[in-house]
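Deviations from the work plan: none for this task. Representative record:
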Amino acid sequence: MLASWNNRKALLAKTIILTVFLIIISIGGIFMEEAALETDFSRKNLSPCFKYLFGTDNLGRDMFARTMCGLSASIRIGILASAFSSVIALVFGIAAALGKRIDFIVNFLIDLIMSVPHILFLIIISLCFGKGVRGVVIGLSLTHWTSLARVIRAEVVQLKQQPYIKISGKLGKGKLYIAFQHMLPHVFPQFAAGLVLMFPHAVLHEASITFLGFGLSNEQPAIGVILSESTKYLVSGMWWLAFFPGVMLVIVVICFYAAGNNLRKVLNSASAHN
Amino acid sequence: MKKKLSALCIVLIFVCLSFCGCSDSNSKANGKVKKDEVIVAMPVSSEPEAGFNPVYGWGAGEHVHEPLIQSTLFYTTSDLGIELDLAESCIISEDGLTWTITVRDDVKFTDGDRLTAEDVAFTYNKCRDESSVNDFSMLKEAIAVDKSTVEFHLKYPFSSWYYTMAVTGIVPKHAYNESYGENPIGSGKYIMKQWDAGQQVIFEANPDYYGKEPNVKKLTVIFMEEDTALAAAQAGEVDVVYTAASYADLKVDGYSLFKAETVDNRGFNLPAVKRHTDNKGTVIGNNFTADVEVRRAINIGIDRDRVIDDVLNGYGCAAYSVCDKMPWYNGEAEVAYNPDKAKEILDNAGWKTDSSGVRSKDGVIAEFKLLYPSSDSVRQALAESVKNQLEKIGIKVTTEGVGWDTAYTRALSDPLIWGWGAHTPMELYNIYHTDNSTGYAVYSPYSNDITDKYMDDAMSETDLNKSYELWKKAQWDGTTGITQQGDIPWIWLCNIEHLYFVRDNLKIAEQKIHPHGHGWSIVNNVDMWSWE
């Protein structure tokens, strides 16, 4: 039966499986929050066993629940931040079509933000907004739009030279009309794929700044918190505190990346032949 | 062929190198050669930022300890009594405002100049003007009357002045400048030979020391993170390594665990007034903990031994006050764990349980946020343990990590896990005495006129032993105070034992009870340590 599938169907199926997996983690994590916060000193420092798949930490917290809950929080923060970020990218990218001056400003902003390492900007912005979920989301949103904005802008600049756009302008249509009616549908596939490909960045960066202590507060089960706590116990041989959460984070990021790539191929069929 | 030869050469070189490496570390590891040297690993935070300058907190800062390089007028004995060091006698005027002290005349700084009353006066005046970490605000002026007599004129009577004098190292007036912290000159047991900032400090015994000649001639202090320090012990590179309860059960070959008793306590404040906003917009007070019956129930509703087992693997002892085992501690503070009594107190006070198991009274739910400094994993665990225990008597606790930038303000309305413990009764004053500008004690809103009065009297008492009695009365005088039967505005959980891995043949001299701060206290008497 599989043989009768064409590439497109297979890609779609893969993407759907990956998406379902990610959705299960992000929703499952929400229901595990209570278990993730529960401390029980009678079961502290247990190595992985059947009951506690990922072991327990020095406060007797179930690491499986904590990992799932942390991943879920990371994914939700990632989605929120990517959504904000991609809207910024779309607005700025399309705005570039409106005129030379705006184009110059947008380009300048992109260069400015890209010239400084993400993590520095993230730390500063997160601190300014009082850390926590709010700080992280605002920080991620304000730093991750640049590369997508650049792609959209390039597309738009190319589109501007297309005969049908020029004709539309000659026929008296306004710039905004052209931007929304003619350009937006054209850049949408790029936009959608870029949005999904932004997730892994956002998730990793959320974990990084939380690990460094500038993100989520440390009573919350977040992957960054779990990993930074675990470094203290590695020396006493408690490898499971870092191993499972770390591997899970990598798996989630790879899933997002694969899903994004697949989505791009599906939406932008021309590039599939490359 | 050539390739094979060169590969062989490389392999041979590596083999040689690794053998050299082994023999090298072997000679380091057997402690036989260095009979009078000690290497101690301390936390990175123990390195004094402003150098070894008593004016900026060396010895006399947040974490008190003996300054080693400098000598002090008095010193504290192992039971926290006061003994003469540089001082030969001390006379206090009737009003407690003038302290006249005769200084030994046979003491020299390590640069050869004599230590005189001038230096003492200079040191104290400098501390008063510039110290930001220790309180010298009661000192009006220190005057050198002649070469060996110094007079301290105080603004108000201050009986704990002895304890200030026991930690303030005397600096030389003639050799003091802004870079003194990096090149300290003193008259103490040791000379600072070398300081590699961020790494280590090397001390050598002072050959001209006026007291008993130090046993240990060279002390090297290395600053390391907890896990690196443990690795250093496992590699046999250091003689004494500080460690935490979470590592204490590990076996390290050639080392054994050394436990030092401390007054390094952990506890939490319970705001004793109802929630309101003051004129600066700060939120003060907590509607649940404002009820004294609630505070009493919490105090006996926590099984301290259980907390210690949970969090410290048993390396600690129950605390009932900020000053357990100190000469000014009032034993009345001790309470027994009694959850049934706690529930009864809450029931009688009108805090009734509903179907969810959480109590409430007149719409106020029996719950509070328990804050802890997010950088401190032990305090986080304490908070979690307290949360689990209070749940059993129907009180709902949520824990939250906070940074020190906001912790002090937040603690005015939400309980925070604190760590205290110093070698001076002033700590009672700092925690419980009313601050006149706000009408409440500084760290947690609470005020009791009678307690305040005892503490004021204790400060103006000129006889040290009599002042202890007054400090005790401030805690509980039979009718009021800060203990279980009194207002109980703070709950004390445990004193954390300071743990060290010590090389087997090194004998550490008897320690006086360590204060807060897992750092320099261990080397207070390093001069008396010995190798066997």
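The domain at 2-40+52-272 of chain A is CATH 1.10.3720.10 (MetI-like fold).
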